[in-house]
Design brief:
Layout lengths: L1 H7 L9 H14 L8 E3 L8 E5 L5 E5 L4 E4 L4 E5 L9 E6 L2 E11 L5 E6 L9 E4 L4 E2 L3 E4 L2 H13 L6 E6 L9 H12 L3 E5 L2 E2 L10 E6 L6 H14 L3 E5 L6 H7 L5 E6 L1 E3 L6 E4 H17 L1
Parallel strand pairs: 3-12, 3-13, 13-17, 14-18, 15-16
Antiparallel strand pairs: 1-2, 2-12, 4-5, 4-9, 5-8, 6-7, 6-9, 7-8, 10-11, 11-19, 15-17, 18-19
Amino acid sequence: MELLKQLCSIHAPSGNEASLKEFILQYIEENQSSWKVQPTIVHGDDFQDCIILIFGKPKTAVFAHMDSVGYTVAYDNELVMIGKPSAKKGTILTGHDSQGKIEGELDIIEDEYEYLTYKIKFDRTIDRGTTLTYKPDFRETDTHVQCCYMDNRLGVWNALKLAETLENGAIVFSCWEEHGGGSVGYLARYLYEQHQIKQALISDITWITKGIESGKGVAISLRDSGIPRKSYLNKIVSLAEKSKIPFQLEVEKAGGSDGNALQRSPYPFDWCFIGAGEENVHSPDEKVHKADIDAMLALYKYLMKNL
């Protein structure tokens, strides 16, 4: 899990994904010679901080968002949320501004009207606009891995491991997902117009709920706040059954992913969210069962060969 540990340690909240982009590009450069197929790597100004890998003759694209939740420093060390972080008072936040390294405790102040103000306890005023993320504490046991930002560094890990054996397909590393999206539209345009791709899998991490249990297999989402096309879902589930890989069917009324952004795009994309479930969502202690990670990667490999 060394690669996952490295991914979780990189500061890359929504809008500030450049460091993770550079890590991924370097990782590809150092490792692609051992992959079954060497991909065409698409990135640059027209793609902002996103990356697309094209393998062989692609029919299906895998989307993995690079960004995490976090905070933006406003005035007098007050904080504004990036996405929906779920951290307790006293959580250690880290970052870097023009004056150097930042590490301090999250303070949550509730007034008489139950309005919450978020601040960081630090011995100087931090530059406005500085982004802060949780301090990584990677833990591994025989059965679980735990750290901040399993959502979605584990989805990125899954995509990079899939790349080792992928012969035909596209892998997309996107931005801004945790804060409402913003990159998927132009990524979909490129895939559709240049490669006629119109189906996708969303390599992301979901929640452990009363319907999704830890260690019981990867979750195939039938819906969240978005509703994929039923005929495509039926095809996915049928293939999953044939694969004999452990999976669970998820139905939720909330939550979203790059799939929602694909559905809002002007391109006729089918999509399905497939990911391991985690405990302690958007906190410093996101926890995932290794059996679900194994099932996630195995199902992606199977689907990319058979879709």
